[in-house]
Design brief:
By secondary structure, this protein is mainly alpha-helical. It is 61% helix and 3% strand.
Length: 293
């Protein structure tokens, strides 16, 4: 996944020298969704066998602990995202298809969070065989298995696929009874982790739209006052939102549209290409959220 440039977010107080509002950098989500090459049922079998051979257990007992604080934080992040999106819906603001899926089905998410809290107490989790490899240190082995299945299925799961993945894994590294008992909770944990990453992307896109709205409002206030100075770097989704909003202003902000077209031409692309790519990205995000739910 190509990293996005940081969003240039307007300061809340006053304007800077020359009447130009200051802009500050907004961080981009650091953890992309669990989305790798989609594998067929046959390829998943081979991937499970390879994974089983690559995971080294920590010989010390009671070491699996690291994922539960993250799980609690994931729940808080998802709840905040839900509330922000609900406010956007009430205010009539734009919502992507992925955001609508999360809003409409958030009761499923809360049920999943409650189920994990009920079925997987911390004391039980800590007794599961844990991993010594650096990338998964402290994680329960069965959680790493669930993450890998989510990553190569884009969260689209069915019973046959899940049973085959576990059976294939156990051809190399048999799982304990405790791990098999915890498997449903681990799948939920992994799905919640992926939903949190998807929600981070939704919230990033929301910030981008807010920044574009603020910038465009300022541009409309000073329309015709001088040359248009686009934010730099210009995030693609920022530019797409500008293109959509510019339709509201017609010829009044033709200078902004001209500057935007010139900027895109310098990057060897067009407004149509940018909008098409953004629609494709939103479709992928919607599918991932729907699969996880």
């Amino acid at each position: 996944m190509t990293p996005r440039p940081p969003v240039l977010w307007p300061a809340t107080g006053g304007t800077g020298e020359g009447g130009i509002r200051r802009w500050f950098r907004r961080p981009v989500p650091s953890e992309p969704p669990l989305r790798d090459e989609l594998l067929s049922i046959e390829a998943l079998e081979g991937r499970a066998i390879t994974l089983a051979g690559s995971l080294t257990l920590d010989p010390r007992e009671g070491r699996a602990f690291s994922v539960l604080p993250r799980f609690a934080n994931n729940g808080r992040v998802l709840s905040r995202a839900y509330m922000d999106l609900a406010r956007d819906l009430a205010a009539g603001r734009f919502l992507s298809a992925a955001a609508e899926w999360l809003l409409d089905n958030f009761h499923v998410v809360t049920e999943g969070l409650s189920a994990v809290e009920r079925d997987l107490p911390p004391t039980y989790y800590r007794q599961l065989p844990s991993l010594a490899v650096r990338a998964h240190a402290g994680h329960a082995r069965i959680y790493a298995v669930a993450l890998e299945l989510i990553r190569h299925s884009d969260s689209r799961l069915d019973e046959q696929q899940m049973v085959l993945f576990l059976r294939s894994f156990q051809r190399v590294a048999p799982l304990t009874i405790g791990e098999l008992w915890a498997w449903p909770s681990m799948v939920k944990l992994a799905l919640v982790e992926n939903l949190r990453r998807l929600a981070d992307e939704l919230m990033y896109a929301r910030v981008v739209r807010q920044a574009a709205d603020t910038w465009l409002d300022q541009a409309a206030t000073g329309a015709g006052a001088g040359p248009v100075d686009l934010p730099s770097p210009l995030a693609p989704d920022f530019a797409v939102h500008l293109l959509h909003r510019l339709r509201e202003y017609g010829l009044r902000l033709s200078g902004v549209r001209l500057a935007l077209d010139q900027h895109l031409a310098a990057l060897d692309t067009t407004a149509e290409d940018l909008i098409r790519a953004e629609h494709q990205r939103q479709s992928v995000a919607q599918a991932s959220v729907a699969n996880a739910v």
